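Practice record 12: protein with heme C.
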Amino acid sequence: MKKLIVSLFMVMMPTLALAAAPSGPLDSMRSDHANKPSLQRGAALFMNYCLGCHSLEYARYQRIADDLEIPADLFEENLIFTGARIGELIEIGMDKRQAASWFGAPPPDLTLVSRLRGDSWVYSYLRAFYKDDSRPFGVNNAVFENVGMPHVLVELQGLCASKPTVGVKPSVEPLSGVVRNAEPCSEWAIEGSMTPAEFDRAMYDLSNFLSYMGDPVKLQRERLGIFVLIFIAIFFVFAYLLNREYWKDVH
Ligand code: HEC
């Protein structure tokens, strides 16, 4: 009986989902797939700024419209720029071999990137571009060194003049009261249309959307999980009583 209880307890322990080990310190972000407005804004950013190079070829537009509660006609009018129908997979026309010669590496499909790299990695990466004239596009990335991707959000974020800090919390010097590392970027080479706080929020939305993309059934799974546990708990009582009944006369 003790063994049964122990094994049941172990079955109920939540399993830890471990993403691929990050390369260095990261700015952490917690995805929230129930936050539909955030996911909608993230989807809009993705369709506007990323779909030119990156596909989401394991997902369909229709599924995103349904999950994010965007009416199909609005979605088709405002978020599909490739001429695709809403029932189709989110593919792009870019030739992989040609893209590799333009960028050094082809832009990978991003359906599962949050599963591969982790949410915090994606969030940090998108905010970590900086000016580096030795690179072909004049930019480098503090999270992904010598990345082939240009800084496509430069009009929103601007361009940091030197390598920004990543994963460093602001600290106050006790004697002088000077705040260190308040902002990841100390000097801007190009000003963007958003403030750093606004850009962080936008990148939270975009990373949140990519997190949803990698695990679109997370909410349903967690909701169903509760019912499964309740069922197991109730079933345990009957299984235990039955077991006692069977073994009553055996000595
Ligand atoms: C002009 C084309 C282009 C656009 C637009 C673009 N990317 Fe990229 N992206 C690339 C290329 C090329 C790479 C591969 C870089 C490498 O491996 O060196 C890449 C790599 C990435 C990676 C890293 C993938 C990995 O695991 O290696 C992420 C994440 C990413 N892009 C996200 C985005 C997001 C989000 C957007 C929209 C804001 C975007 N990209 C827009 C070209 C682009």
